[in-house]
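task queued by scheduler; priority normal; single chain, no ligands, no partner chains; default sampling; output format set to structure tokens
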Amino acid sequence: MKTILSLFDYSGTWSEPYREAGYKVLQYDLKFGPGNDILTLDFNQFKNQNVVGILAAPPCTHFTKASSLNWAFYDKAGLTNISIELVKRVLYAVKLLYPKFWAIENPPGRIEKLIPEMRNLKLLSFYPYEFGTPTYKLTNLYGNFNPFLFRNFVKPIYKIKAGKNELDFLKLHKPGYCRGSRRSVTPTGFAQSFFNSNH
């Protein structure tokens, strides 16, 4: 059976098309509790599980331009170094398991500056509204995958109202899932399009 290793994947949205197609999806996120910390996860256990794809959406708080005013604080507190190590763990898993395709998602910021290995790996930049979700949040995909995805453009909404008027796709109610976490959920249209081009 083909296996997808999905890291930092609490919602399961990005990996869902693979699950529906019959792939074995191994989903890890620290929010799931003990045994799900990417920093300590033993990737050797997956060597014989036919991992054909690795999907990873590591925390972006310490990389994204949206948090640039706090970068100095994050650096001093050691938080940035933890985020760097998390990304490097994904790169280690790629080298160890050698999947058919792999991708790391992160919004524009300083990830390429802080992690030289990420330079020249960016294959795709997109907004959710290009795949049917009407939001305006640019993100980048790094890795080795087919970047030619079918797009379904819709009119973007530039401001999202909280509360009862919040878009349905943001209403992901799970323990510890704040509105910021819901905004980071992979758009379903993108997830399906990515699957269609990478399986």
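post-processing summary
- The radius of gyration is 16 Å.
- The helical segments are 16-20, 71-77, 79-97, 111-114, 179-183, 188-197.
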